[in-house]
């Protein structure tokens, strides 16, 4: 059985030294009454003080002092200072991993969203169609003269553009959105050209 260390008298009487060392990390008003001193080893002791620090009720300030053989009171060494919790201390709740804090509904929603993202990956056919459409997008499609008269007027053109935009928003796949966007732009340009030709014929 290990022998209990003997309390060093010089270190035990150095209460003021311990309090001054704590004043470097706490305000003087936050350091309360001296609670006692404990021998930690040969010529090594720890002084304890009541904590008046706001939010740290029940905690205890401590200062650990040491000295070399035949050292005087002015030559004491401050090894460590800090604050520790007591039995009645107000403590933060135990840390819980993020995955364990999630509710069942949140986990199911996250899994559903992940599955939806995976399901929106463009297929090979969609990617090929997008590439072909991109190559032909620079060349506007001609409209036969017989069909020009059937193109809606300017007020109907705005309605069609809104419908095309709604159709575009309803498509979730990135590749499909790209194809729809180009097709919508082509149809809009064709309608505007046809509307201009109709107005020119009426004015003529």
Automatic annotation (TrEMBL):
Disordered: annotated span: 109-204
Residue stretches of biased makeup (Basic residues): 174-204
InterPro entries: DUF3027
Listed Acidic residues bias regions: 157-168
This protein's name: DUF3027 domain-containing protein
């Amino acid at each position: 059985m290990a022998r209990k260390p003997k309390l060093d008298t010089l270190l035990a009487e150095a209460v003021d030294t311990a309090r001054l060392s704590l004043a470097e990390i706490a305000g003087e008003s936050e350091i309360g009454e001296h609670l006692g001193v404990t021998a930690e080893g040969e010529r090594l002791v720890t002084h304890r003080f009541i904590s008046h620090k706001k939010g740290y009720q029940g905690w205890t300030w401590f200062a650990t002092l040491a000295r070399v053989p035949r050292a005087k009171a002015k030559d004491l060494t401050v090894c460590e200072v800090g604050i520790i919790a007591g039995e009645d201390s107000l403590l933060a709740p135990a840390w819980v991993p993020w995955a364990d804090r999630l509710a069942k509904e949140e986990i199911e929603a996250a899994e559903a969203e992940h599955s939806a993202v995976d399901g929106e990956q463009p297929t090979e056919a969609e990617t090929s169609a997008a590439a072909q459409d991109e190559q032909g997008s620079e060349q506007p499609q001609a409209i036969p003269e017989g069909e020009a008269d059937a193109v809606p007027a300017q007020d109907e053109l705005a309605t069609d553009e809104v419908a095309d935009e709604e159709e575009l928003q309803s498509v979730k796949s990135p590749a499909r959105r790209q194809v729809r966007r180009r097709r919508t732009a082509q149809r809009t340009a064709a309608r505007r050209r046809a509307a201009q030709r109709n107005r020119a014929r009426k004015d003529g």
